[in-house]
Amino acid sequence: MCGCVAGDHLCGLSVSKRAFAGGAQAHVGYMWLPQGLPSGVPEVSTDAGYVRAEYLSRRKGLEMQKVSRGIGLILLAVGIVLGGGTAAQADNQKVTFEITDEPGAWFRIAGAPINGLQSLAIATPGTEVVFTGKSNTVHTRTSLLWPTGATNMPFDTEPRKGSDSLVLHTPGLYVFTCKIHPYMFGAVIIDGNGLDDGTLELGKTLTLVNTTAPASISPLSGFTLQTYSDLAVRLLRTFFIATGPQRWIDYSSPAQWDPFKDLPDINVTVYNGDVPVTAPLKFALNNLVKLSPLPADKAALVPPGTPAVGEIWVDTQFEKTSGKNKPGTATAISGQTWQPTRKVALPQINMNNPHNMWTDKNQNLIYQTQWFDSKLTVFNRTTGKVLNNITVGESPAHVMTQVGSDKLHVTLNGAADTKSVVELSANAGGILRKIDIGEGNPHAHWMSHDGNVMVTPNPFTHDSTVYNFPNNGGKLVGTNVLPIAVGMTPDSTTAYVANLLDSTITVIDVNSQQKTATIDLLKAGTNYDPIGGIITLPDGVTPKGPVGALPIQTPVAPDGKSMVTANTLSGTITIVNPATNEVVKMLPCDPGCHGVQYGAKQGGGYYAYVSSKFSNALIVVDPAPNGDPAQAAIVGRILLTSAEGTVSDDTVTGNPGMGGQGILPIPVVYNGWVQQLPQAWKDQLTTKQQNPLQ
Ligand SMILES: [Cu+2]
Questions:
Q1: Which of 201, 306, 344, 426 could form a disulfide with 384 if both were Cys (CB 3.0 to 4.6 A apart)?
Q2: Distance CA 142, CA 220 (A)
């Protein structure tokens, strides 16, 4: 029953439940490791001169609770026929999820998918859920939501490639994710009323993992979600879109987008308090509560009126090509024609899920992370030719250069130990060291304009490291749950950390290394009603909002006038005025809204480019017309599929232009980097763009 691998120090606990993010019962959780199980987790860094006291002080008083118990239950065999069609196979009361690198099928149910539901299993109480690994990198198997009070919940594991299992007893909806790649979803509905009535029972209330965290780290602490609610239905809708590529928005197709394509013709039962409400699944996902309209108006596919300087690279991470079995390309868009000029798939190295990019100070190289792998890849920007493929560690997520040295720093999202940032020499000549940031598993860091400071978001430990290079040490600053991406003002005095699961942004004073404020993007109860719903879009009917649910990338404009945040659950773009830290505007985005970067607009000013995972369009935002972020507007939508004249090293075979994640406008015009550009690039910028703070 224990599916652990030999030698794993957690073997005896492989079906244990360790509280997410420290959980309700634990102190501000540190490593999510029960005491007495620290093998592989160094207690004290060996880095000389390290400001270790800061880290150690947070360990004191740490009381992690072992919540391990053996699970030994006799399993009964049942069928799971639903409304004439098996939704997904659960044989002999066992559901096996294969964890893969395959877009949409990250938690793929073993056996052929039926009705397109490759990641949703329907089963009865007592079903064993098994996770097995088929990915090139490590993943966690983590409860995202579950029926309130359910036995064996929440479940969580270390990042690993091996197997795990648990048994589900309590009826209702369970969604599992990976804390490293938090859009990987697998779900199980335990139907307590039997499986032959054609109705999926979602149960009365759900608990979200962050709501089990202490109030000190989650504004949603203690919140319980009834299943008849905007938030529950929105989460379910996002699950179905994420796990079915046929439900992604294909702007290149003449067919009308159907976000519910191939969903089975079955009913779901949700609860309004104690009152059951049964409705057809598709109706429930679109009409049961007052969900805001889904975006994706193809008429919006228009280029901006004013050209951009240079080009815009977008990681079309889910695009498939014929010459390799791993997904992903990097797509270059011309800022003059707004056409895709190049797609780089790198079949010769089987490039796997390219996630985020940066370039050298001469703008000649593209540094490309492979997030579902262990490599940093370097290719020539103008030829697409691969130059280097360097093993850096598990799940390399983001890469940026350091102003001055032009060294690279790559975060290792899958690294369980605290030496989780890799430093490479200029032009990625070689690995220089691994930097101890006091935590493992960082995602999207940001570097200061002078190269002195790096701020990492540490998703597993709800904190952020403010690392000072001259001191060769850092300090941990508390955030909310699952911090995922950092932005920084151009003078590097303020850092912003987007907390995915709490829909907040932690504001950090970089110099004093203190948290100074929290920006609430959800404003539940004020701007957003998690039960009644309505996230109002600019053309909406209810004067509520702005709202951003599940924020990801959040860079600050090179001139400091705006911060643009991509919110993946709400499918909205929020604009913050960094002068006041107020959310001043909301714009519609596509499902899976994810990446943001700023680039130079021709003749002055900036565009913010926004990518979405489950769409093949790049949104162009004018983030501060007339210098005012409250007037931010969408000024273009660019198709990311190949066009006539697009040069590529491989042939696209699936998910065309899909999976928008990391973005890299060339030239890099953030303060600090822009001053290092070759003259030929500077000549294309205005004086103000060359010196954004003057
Ligand atoms: Cu993962």
A1: 344
A2: 18
Whether residues 464 and 561 fall in one domain:
yes
**Element housing 515 (H / E):** strand 514-520
Rounded Cα distance between 193 and 217, Å, is 37
Q: Please check whether residues 218 and 309 belong to one and the same domain.
A: no
pLDDT at res. 234: 85
Rounded to the nearest whole angstrom, what is the distance from the C-alpha of residue 580 to the centroid of ligand 1?
A: 35
Q: How far is the CA of 252 from the centre of ligand 1 (A)?
A: 29
Residues 501 and 650 in one domain: yes
Q: Are residues 217 and 345 in the same domain?
A: no
Same domain membership, residue 315 and residue 229: no
Q: How far is the CA of 620 from the centre of ligand 1 (A)?
A: 29
Condensed to tens digits (0 to 9), the pLDDT of residues 506-516 reads: 999 999 999 99
Q: What is the CATH classification number for the domain harbouring 218?
A: 2.60.40.420
Q: pTM score, two decimals?
A: 0.87
- Is 409 part of a structural domain of the chain? yes
Give, as residue ranges, everything with CB less than 5 Å from ion ligand 1. 139, 178, 180-181
pLDDT tens sequence across 349-372: 999 999 999 999 999 999 999 999
Could you tell me which residues come within 8 angstroms of residue 303 by beta carbon, excluding any fewer than 6 positions away? 338, 636, 638
Q: What is the rounded CA–CA span in Å between residue 562 and residue 545?
A: 18
Distance 141 CA to ligand 1 centre (A): 8
Non-local (6+) Cβ contacts of 293 within 8 A are 537, 540
C-alpha of residue 179 to centroid of ligand 1, in Å: 6
pLDDT at 694 over 80: yes
Spatial separation of the C-alpha atoms in residues 587 and 107, rounded to whole Å: 31
| Three-state secondary structure call for residue 302 | coil
Q: How many Å lie between the centroid of ligand 1 and the Cα of residue 182?
A: 7
Assigned token pair, 219: 């504004």
Using the Cα atoms of residue 457, residue 483, residue 589 and residue 105 in order, give the sign of their dihedral.
positive
pLDDT at 143: 95
CA of 138 to the centre of ligand 1 (A): 6
277: exposed, middle or buried (Cβ count in 10 Å: 0-12, 13-18, 19+): middle
**pLDDT tens per residue across span 209-258:** 999 999 999 998 998 999 988 888 888 989 999 999 999 999 998 888 88
**What residue type is 426 in one-letter code?**
A
**What's the gap in Å between 470 CA and the centre of ligand 1?**
33
- CA dihedral defined by 469, 471, 472, 477, rounded to 10 degrees? -80
Report the range of poorest mean pLDDT among 10-24, 226-240, 275-289, 628-642: 10-24
Q: Are residues 447 and 587 in the same domain?
A: yes
How far does the centroid of ligand 1 lie from the alpha carbon of residue 363, in Å? Answer: 31
Say how many Å lie between the first and final Cα of the chain, rounded: 64
